[in-house]
Design a protein that fits this description.
9 helices; alpha/beta; single chain
Length: 246
């Protein structure tokens, strides 16, 4: 049996423990902007009626549900490695009567349990910085979308404007862990969150990684002064991956 990496084990323990307060902490982490960022992302994605999607590291399922509403009838999969997160998500899905359309599954974003060319969209929200190998995750997302399908990452990023960068880093490194302690009684886990951004690529570097994995028509949008970024790439239509094919 393959052992999980130390990072993978720690991330798993963090999200298992904070699941009940995850949505509240997302509000605090993003200055209550994460819903606006997701709305912007959905506009850019322009999900067609009946489209299928997989939402990686779906947490408690908010984006998965948004994708299902936009599709209307297409099958939507939410995948996460934290069963506690999925349990919270299941309650939301059932409450909305969407359990026929949405399937939530426990799984590993670096080894997706789906065939090649299965979905129209693959999304990952606020989780790419947490995975042990982000290139592998992007490659897996590209593998499971159909030719012409869209790979989408919405993620925290490094602010681009220097005065704001200093304020945000102070908030992220000093204030956020204290809020985590107050709200979910977890200091160490929220102290770890700023660490997850330290070595994460900025929005230009991540766009380059998208291109290097073979995605085309790559777009990057810094959001709210660069504290988050949206990245979109299209899987080439032809096996040779030439940009002229999409």
């Amino acid at each position: 049996m393959e052992m999980k990496s130390t990072k993978e084990q720690f991330v798993h323990s963090v999200f298992e423990s904070i699941a009940p307060k995850y949505d509240l902490m997302n509000d605090i982490l993003s200055f209550r902007r994460h819903k606006a960022w997701r709305n912007f992302t959905m506009k850019k994605m322009d999900v067609k009626p009946g489209a299928t999607a997989i939402d990686l590291c779906c947490g408690t399922g908010d984006w998965t549900i948004s994708l299902a509403k936009a599709s209307g009838a297409g099958k939507i999969v939410g995948l996460d490695f934290s069963q506690n997160m999925l349990d919270v998500g299941e309650e939301k899905v059932k409450r909305l009567g969407m359990d026929e359309q949405i399937k939530l599954v426990q799984g590993n974003a670096m080894a997706l349990p789906f065939e090649d060319n299965s979905f129209d969209y693959a999304t990952i929200g606020f989780a790419l910085r947490n995975v042990p190998d982000l290139v592998k995750v992007i490659e897996e997302m590209q593998r499971v979308v159909k030719p012409g399908g869209m790979v989408v990452s919405l993620e925290l990023s490094k602010p681009t404007w220097k005065p704001f960068k200093a304020i945000y880093l102070f908030y992220f490194q000093k204030v956020l862990p204290l809020l985590g302690k107050l709200i979910v009684k977890r200091y160490e886990q929220y102290k770890w969150l700023p660490e997850s951004l330290k070595n994460f690529p900025d929005h230009k570097e991540l766009a380059d990684i998208f291109r290097k994995t073979g995605l085309t028509r790559v777009e990057a949008y810094p959001l709210t002064g660069g504290i988050a970024a949206l990245h979109i790439g299209i899987k080439p239509q032809a096996a040779n991956g030439s940009k002229g094919d999409v």
